Amino acid sequence: MASASTTAPSFQIISSLRYDPDLPKVTSRNVNDSSYPAPADSPYYLLSYHRDRLINAARHFEWDKAIDFLQQDLVSFEKLLDGSISDVQKPWRMRIAVDCNGKGSIEVNPTVAIDPLNLLIPSLHSGIQPTIWKVFVDSQLTTPSGFTTHKTTARDDYTAARVRAGITSPAETSEVLVVNPDGEIMEGSITTPYFRRPIAGDATEPVWVTPPLTSGGNAGTSRRYALTQGFCVEQLVTKADLVDGEECWLSNGVRGFMRGVVVLSR
To answer: Which superkingdom, per the lineage (predicted)?
Structure first.
């Protein structure tokens, strides 16, 4: 990862989440009290996980003022976000950014309309989706650092990986997997990937697995949700393990869970 001064005003820790007015209806009808993180009636997707993620990043960079700002209660945190929503009837992509001085900002942009069921783990819905994402593998290696294990504005390596994969727009339904120097899949450039794999030493049916954080990727919010609800387990996935045409899942805090297919040759 390109070097970045963690005390520069331009360097921030970030988290992107979805505002969706239909989310509370989906969580109330399709999950029980323990299968979605509180507050389950919030239109902000995985709200508490996003706050936790930012706090963990602030702790990593030893930003005391940012920690103080982020440790406000969830009711106050949600009210802070409410002030940025211009139309409560539409879904929005929100980007929360916090600097070393504890100054927070919120960027709000329109986002694609999706079936809100896709915000739940796949085992809670049919998984029928009209769009299948193409999942490429980066041709170069990325060295893990605090800028990969935490989401920040230092995104040069991810941007470069997307360019190498020919992904030119955030609107494209394509993703590229980032690989560490040991040949292990770290994560996607904007998503967490999940692959169907047998568990080592276990003769039972294959299960969904996601790369462990020791491979260098980010502790994403939808990843935490998937692990907490038992949709997947952690297991090393190497570039050599991937099979051209194999199906996978992808997830992030704005689009929820998306079907994908690995593309190794083109």
So the answer is: Eukaryota
